[in-house]
Amino acid sequence: MNKVIVDTSAWIDFFRAPAGGIGDEVATLIEQDRAVLVGPVLAELLQGLKSRREADTLNELFSILPYLETTRDDWENAGDLLRRMRHNGITMPLSDTLIASIAKKHGHAVLTLDKHFEHLEIPLHPARN
Questions:
Q1: Of 40, 78, 83, 110, which has the fewest Cβ atoms less than 10 A away?
Q2: Are 4 and 107 within 8 A, CB to CB?
Q3: Are 70 and 55 in contact (CB under 8 A)?
Q4: pLDDT tens string 27-82
């Protein structure tokens, strides 16, 4: 089975409502050893932590997940994608284009609730809502 990069929006939903919908899908991906972590997602989640307890929970869970390092090529591909999207009148967050670049390079899908990922040339993992 293919690996899936779980985007920040899916993790937030998982932590807030682990039962049902996308929370169940994230849990299934973790159980099947298919969930993958990338730097932009880690950074976005860390910035929103409110307590040491939340940090400990995050660190414990993320210590068991595969982590994909970001390379210079990933950054260059993200920059090129941003330029092409802007040329077509679409503005995208840098973090999301970087996630898309990493996913495309590794052939992974992305599980997300963010609709703007639909503009990117990557497979999206279907979320159960």
A1: 83
A2: no
A3: no
A4: 999 999 999 999 999 999 999 888 898 889 889 989 999 999 999 999 999 999 99
Residue pair 70/102 in contact by the 8 Å Cβ criterion: yes
**Rounded to whole angstroms, how far apart are CA atoms 81 and 30?**
29
Q: Which tokens sit at 59? A: 């660190």
The neighbour count for residue 65, using CB atoms within 10 Å, is 15
What is the side-by-side order of every strand in the sheet holding 109-111? 67-68, 35-38, 4-6, 109-111
Q: What is the dihedral of CA 30, 112, 9, 17, to 10 degrees?
A: -60
pTM for the structure as a whole: 0.90
Going 77 to 106 to 45 to 21, the CA torsion angle's sign is positive
Q: How far apart are alpha carbons 40 and 117 in whole angstroms?
A: 14
